[in-house]
Specification:
eleven-stranded mixed beta sheet, single chain, disordered N terminus, 11 strands
């Protein structure tokens, strides 16, 4: 499964080189934000849901706005659909399969955030995803939870590595 995810990550990196997503203002203290400066790429996997995909963000040194997206595929390569109408969704992401990172906060060695709501192929219902992670050097590892109306729909893990300094 990881080989498929790494292949998907390569596609996302190539797409990311052509265009930019909408920036998200990173919340937190200046030191925690500065520690995240750089280009990060990674993957996530969803345990029992079989969902997986790639993720990435870039934070330029001296700024507090990051550019980041998550590319998601269902367990049978089923596409996810954003909860927003497609014409609205296309204004803030690069491809239809990407989801915007809506909120990110950094404090000490911890990060947390949310993704834009989307229609899960598992239940054909609108779900929301939150994530938390711990920064250790040039790596971030964490967990995510996807909820439908407050009920846990999926839980999984994610990891990222810093792959560039982005003006750091």
């Amino acid at each position: 499964m990881r080989a498929k995810l790494l292949g998907g990550l390569a596609v996302v990196v190539l797409i990311g080189c052509r265009t930019q997503s909408m920036p998200v203002r990173l919340q937190g203290d200046a030191v925690s934000i500065a520690w995240l400066a750089g280009s990060w790429t990674g993957e996530y996997w969803g345990g029992s849901s079989g969902r997986g995909g790639s993720l990435g963000f870039t934070l330029r040194s001296g700024t507090d706005s990051l550019f980041g997206d998550v590319t998601m595929m269902g367990s049978n390569n089923q596409p996810v659909r954003p909860a927003d109408p497609m014409e609205v969704h296309r204004t803030h992401v690069q491809t239809m399969q990407q989801l915007r990172i809506d909120f990110v906060a950094a404090q000490g060695d911890s990060v947390r955030g949310t993704l834009e709501p989307y229609v899960s192929p598992d239940c054909e219902c609108v779900v929301g995803t939150t994530f938390v992670g711990q920064v250790r050097g040039n790596a971030i590892t964490g967990i995510f939870e996807t909820r439908n109306g407050g009920r846990l729909a999926a839980r999984g893990e994610w990891e990222m590595r810093r792959v560039g300094d982005a003006g750091r």
